[in-house]
Amino acid sequence: MKKLFSILIMLVFSAGLYSFTSPEYFEGKWAVTVKDTPQGTATIPMRFETKDGKTMGYFVEDPSGTEKPMSSVSISGDVLTGYFNIQGYDVYISLKKVDDESAAGSLMDMFTAEAKKVK
């Protein structure tokens, strides 16, 4: 019985580790496409970096190409959530790893978001 309990604990622990995505996965440039907004489909260039254990996010709002910092970024399990102000609206985006080059999620839990790593 003790062996069975030990094996069960190991399986549960292993499953928990498997679903964890490291912050390094999200690092770099992303093209995030948000679908069916009131202004139509929009692609927002974003960039994420981790320094001293803290993940920061940046996005480009206008054609000037100037990056603006996100107000906060957190990674919980395998989901990145970033908060930022774009065109006068405070919004948040949630992205979850799909594969090595893409992530999916939503903007404000209302609009579908698809992200592709930019090389």
Automatic annotation (TrEMBL):
The entry's keywords: Signal
Signal peptide: 1-21
Protein name: Glycoside hydrolase
Origin: domain of life: Bacteria
Protein source organism: Algoriphagus aquaeductus
